[in-house]
Design brief:
Elements (H helix, E strand, L loop, with lengths): L1 H38 L2 H22 L2 H16 L9 H22 L3 H30 L1
Helix pairs in contact: 2-3, 3-4, 4-5
């Protein structure tokens, strides 16, 4: 009888230890994940939101869903007006931002009229505006790093 009791306690002890280890590992994983999220730069978070919004626009254009396009363009417009967006203050950067907003506005207007061929062309223009602005920011940072 003693052997069975010892075995049962041993099994219970093993289960408790295993459960404790899993709980600690889970807590550590959650803790590291939470810390990584806190470390993210606000610009990185904003750019991730921009990518998510562009996915909505692209999907909306692909399936000709003007509401999905509108949802994505509204997010992009709001993001472009947020303080975190303003990473530079020079005239070229302001112009890049303004031309991006104008392109997004034309894109949304065309989609709302169900003129999806025009909206697709505006999407290409808006995407080019993103690349132009990102190239400008990189060039500015490179010149300051020298």
């Amino acid at each position: 009888m003693k052997t069975a009791t010892c075995f049962r306690l041993s099994a219970i002890s093993k289960l408790a230890i295993s459960t404790g280890c899993v709980a600690v590992a889970g807590w550590l994983t959650w803790s590291v994940s939470a810390q990584e999220k806190e470390k993210k730069n606000p610009v990185e978070v904003s750019m991730r939101q921009k990518l998510e919004a562009t996915s909505k626009v692209l999907e909306g254009l692909t399936i000709e869903d003007k509401e999905l396009v509108h949802e994505g363009t509204a997010i992009l417009t709001a993001l472009s007006k947020a303080e975190v967006w303003q990473v530079l203050t020079d005239a070229d950067y302001r112009e890049h931002t303004q031309t991006f907003r104008s392109s997004i506005k034309r894109l949304d207007e065309a989609a709302q009229k169900s003129e999806f061929a025009s909206a697709q062309l505006e999407w290409l223009d808006a995407t080019k505006r993103c690349f132009d602005c990102h190239n400008h920011v990189r060039a500015d940072r490179a010149s300051k790093a020298k």
